[in-house]
Write a structure and sequence with these properties.
By secondary structure, the chain is mainly beta. The chain is built from no helices and 13 strands. β5 and β6 form a beta hairpin. It is globular and about 40 Å long.
Length: about 120
């Protein structure tokens, strides 16, 4: 079992930065791929970035060059550094372990509760 807790969201002006944290409890966290997802009310949950157990990152095209995902397995934490934020980045951001895509959405047994990111002047 893995439990995930996100933190670090908030209100920021366009062009600003935030760092989100996803803290995990449970065993063998370093064996999981961990992803950051975001969702706007009424829309599907989209993948933002994912980092595999070997530390290999991947990003949605919309955030490449602006966001960086990293993990510190000693601290059981995955981070999402978000720079050059835009209003369209506004959403609830979730982390999840070993999420897979099928039937038109992402599925995981392990989701955090979400943290709101609002980019507005």
């Amino acid at each position: 079992q893995v439990q995930l807790v996100e933190s670090g969201g908030g209100l920021v002006q366009p062009g600003g930065s935030l760092r989100l944290s996803c803290a995990a409890s449970g065993r063998a966290f370093n064996a999981y791929a961990v992803g950051w997802f975001r969702q706007v009310s009424g829309k599907q949950r989209d993948l933002v970035a994912n980092i595999r157990d070997a530390g290999i990152p991947e990003y949605a095209d919309s955030v490449k060059g602006r966001f960086t995902i990293s993990r510190d397995d000693a601290k059981n934490t995955v981070y999402l550094q978000m720079n050059s934020l835009k209003p369209e980045d506004t959403a609830v951001h979730y982390c999840a372990a070993d999420a897979v895509w099928y039937s038109g959405t992402y599925h995981s047994d392990y989701w955090g509760q979400g943290t709101q990111v609002t980019v507005s002047s």
